[in-house]
Fold Orotidine 5'-phosphate decarboxylase.
Amino acid sequence: MIDRLIEKIKQTDNPSVVGLDTNFDYLPDELRAGVADLRGAAQAIAEFNRNVIDNICDIVPAVKVQIAYYEMYGVEGMKTFAETLAYASKKGMYVMTDAKRNDIGATAECYAKAYLGKTFVNGASETAFDSDFLTVNGYLGSDGIVPFLKWMKECDKGIFVLVKTSNPSSGELQDMRLSDGKTVYEYMGQWVEAWGKNCRGKYGYSDVGAVVGATHPAQAEILRKQMPHTFFLIPGYGAQGGTARDLKVCFDADGMGGIVNSSRGILCAYRQEKYNGKSYSEAARLASIDMKNDLNQAIKG
């Protein structure tokens, strides 16, 4: 799976993923007008997502759909979540579900079936939420990761394991130093590199990736050196404060090895003065192009 994502990045010359963290409040007035319940909000979000996808699918290789933004609209929101995954896939984009799932082994197996594998009912199988990649919390240990690895291999999918996250307080745990001087995030990176050793592709990267935030470049630089076979999903660019220059350290000498997420910077671009007069979908396209150029200048420059 990671080889195909890398090839799509090469084809579009764009190492970015658009995060569809679509809050109803992000929508323009015309989509919010008259909406009074969860169903209406979910339907408006679905329309917004479709129009954004239509305008970026030829220039952006992937979308990342953050499930929390759909769960808060209840059952109707989850329908929009599933529809968004399917629509983006239909448009030729790779689809990442950002759900940060994990639990003890048996429950992790259920999560793995839901997002990467198949659910069986009286001998028949069906995919619940068809994703190409899933974000996973590895801090429960290996018994919570094994079910994801199994379904990932069987269905040719990928995962991104939390290693060094972009939030300001991530260091409270992840930067703690143990008795040998290594940090917790370095140990997690070591485990992620090991979990992916049997599923490396022709570009040298494995289907087991890592979430490494652009907001912590010093730590990201350490991890890039220690995890030469691990592809990074890089949040924190734009609205969270990470810059293209910050995240350059996440990439290898050939400018490969990562994909950068932006959510609000794309979804709410129509509210920026720079894109004044453009529709939300037109602004999303222009902002995606600007992000692509910004990243390539920093990574390849």
Observations:
- The radius of gyration is 19 Å.
- The domain at 2-300 is CATH 3.20.20.70 (TIM Barrel).
- The beta strands are 16-19, 62-66, 94-101, 119-121, 124-126, 133-136, 158-164, 208-212, 232-234, 258-262.
